[in-house]
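Q: What changes when flavin-adenine dinucleotide is included in the input?
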Amino acid sequence: MRLPKYRTEVVREEGIADPDFLALGLGGTNMMAMLWSVAMGRRCVGVEMRGDPGLGVHWNIREDFYHHLGIIDDLMMRQYGEDGIPRRGDGRLFRLAETFYSPKSEAGDIFADELISGLASSLGDEIHISGTIYHAEFIDDRYRNGKPNRSITVLDRPNPPMEPDLTRVGRPTIDVLDGPSMFQAGAIEVLTFLRRYLQAIEKMDMAAGRVPRVRLYTSHRVVSSVGDTNDGFLRWFQHEDGFVRHPDGRLQVLIEEIEEFDLDTRFRRVRRPGTPLIDLGVPKLFVLAQGYDSSDADRLGFQQHDVEIDHHDGRGPVVAQADYLAGFLELHIGGRLRRRIASEFDRKGNEYWVRQIAVGHENDPEVGWLLVQVPDFKTFDPVLAGLVPENTPRKSAEYVAAYKHMLRDFYLDQAALILELPREDLETVQMPYGPKMFSLVERMGTDARVAANGVVAGDTFGNGHFLTSGGAITGMVGHACRVYFYWKDIDAGKPENDAVRTLADAIEEDTLGWLHVSAQEFSQALPINFGQERIAQIEAKSGVDSGARATTIDATRRHRKSLLPLDPSDWRRLTIRAGRLHVPEIPALQETHPDERAGSVVGAASDMGGGDGMPGTKMARNA
Ligand SMILES: Cc1cc2nc3c(=O)[nH]c(=O)nc-3n(C[C@H](O)[C@H](O)[C@H](O)COP(=O)(O)OP(=O)(O)OC[C@H]3O[C@@H](n4cnc5c(N)ncnc54)[C@H](O)[C@@H]3O)c2cc1C
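A: The predicted holo structure follows.
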């Protein structure tokens, strides 16, 4: 065993070390895994480096999540009785399922802390965190035979469950995702209420002088080095490793408290001066779920590979990759999930399919999450567009400003199309985030098992396409409940080694399920988050076979070189473009294709597009 040479004190907290379950990273995946574990009577420790949750996206959520919360509530009651369950600030039992959704309370502009603290109920407001999706709309604006064509499908209004179904657990992720999303919720609010529940257990146990069932370290990470400031050989020489591998393959984990600061526009983290290292001992099971890019997983030798998709078009497998612009506008989309697919044309008239998604929240006029796909031919090159002179340095203020202007221009154009709002109206709407370009590349690990006692999970293990609204679901519903089954296996006498193997294989199967449903977001038209059954209805209506694909596929004509991940720290450094709140709900969908409407230059020009039948001005705009 190679123990690190510590120059600092190492402490072991009584009753904390050697936990049953250790969660490294406290996103949705691991907080749900912790909840399942504590509900199964296990002692848990969680380690998170970014403090309270800060993830700014708005999630579409499948129904199974609600049922899982209900099952955890039920297990908690059986395991600990009423006295072992935390209470909200208003004295009521803190139940996870009803905090998330209840037919007896209202959705709206909800902060989890207002609900949990009891403030909302003291004001007479009975509220829950999620909103229900009442309008699921799919617009197919792809050209047919060289002409604009619109086909709209509006799904039946879903029936939210009246109460949790205590039998609905363990469904294959592919089946969970093959169904429409039922709820919408701010990721930050979901993560906050899960965190508050875990914190409340920790607090009540500590107050009672018991060994806490849950212990959270939220400004901490696995010991990684002497600090971010020592670079090069010296740093390598002094490197301390908080993962200590024992001869039997199990890992011992040591953590350090960190201080985070903003240095030259980058967040840096160093060990908090004067603090000891904390030896967490050897957990029975650890799950490492630290998001898309985890240096801890790298350290453990875990590797991901790009996922390739074979479209059976003779070109063989290509990397599953696409570029998007993400942005958050303060406008009223309401309880709606709207998706659109449309044709864009490059200068040569090649057709590309681009997708957009608009996500809102029931009774909350401030939630307008919009993601728009960038076709591969779009370079956002200010010189090509004639916005700055040739040879303008790429880092100059003029170049960057022109580039950003082009991004926003394209984003608002596309936003206007999916929202059916005049472009000039959108110009004045407040925008707290974006548009931010990011590249989506699907990746997956070969084996989730990284130690005799540990696995990786969530986005760290693999990721599919976010348009399936499947990432959090794969982690929080799929991977997390595999931990529940792990404990059931252990209770049933399965050897630990076999139980971890089963867990790792199940994690891989879940992610493969997500990748499977993601494949069609790269080439085919129809959105999986409406469910296979509905896809058949849409196909029947639009007359376009879901197996059909654009003449060009993403990733084959790539001009933009760099791959930009969506940095989780972005949510902590928002740049707000001030403007008004767009209060009226977005208008009803029109029957006509945008290019056919009066005043549309594209529509007017489409007949002049020459022998190829492609819309001339649209091509010009797409420089
Ligand atoms: C724009 C967008 C829209 C999306 N929409 C949806 C949707 O509608 N529905 C859906 O299901 N999914 C959606 N997703 C995907 C979803 O957000 C992710 O799949 C999900 O957050 C992954 O959860 P996770 O727990 O695996 O990782 P994360 O949420 O990334 O959490 C990882 C945690 O680990 C912490 N961490 C990282 N490194 C360390 C370290 N070294 N030490 C300690 N802690 C660490 C991080 O601070 C973070 O708290 C969307 C994603 C994006 C980008």
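Observations recorded in class: The radius of gyration is 25 Å.
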